[in-house]
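Sample entry (139 residues):
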Amino acid sequence: MYKQILILFLIVIFSSCDKNSLKVGTFEIYEDEIYIGKIYRLNNYQIEEYPKTSLLISQLSWKNDTSFVLKGTEINPKGIDTIQFLNFYSNISKNKYSLLAIPINSKFDYEYNATIVKKSNTIDKKFLDTLLTLNKMNN
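Predicted structure, serialized as tokens:
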């Protein structure tokens, strides 16, 4: 327990000092200024929570401070989307970013646009343990 609290404390300290605030924290996602869900992110993984749907877990491969490849993952990969998206962020204002996601392993002609708002440098305890385990397994 103390180890997790110490890790969370260090994450908060380092993420607040880091010029890149996109890799750790809790974010809200909006489409056309309408709230659609939350993202809990810790470095190379994120958990997406949407009303009335199951949680989505994604692995992130960071290209630089503002872009990464997103790959859906789950323990039992039935029905998981195999399309990988290259995500780009642009800063709109403090803690507010535009998001553009483009599929990279498909000829599917599609662009996803949304707005991401960072709400906190911390991650809800019910998601933090899972994110810590996923990051640890893949290091």
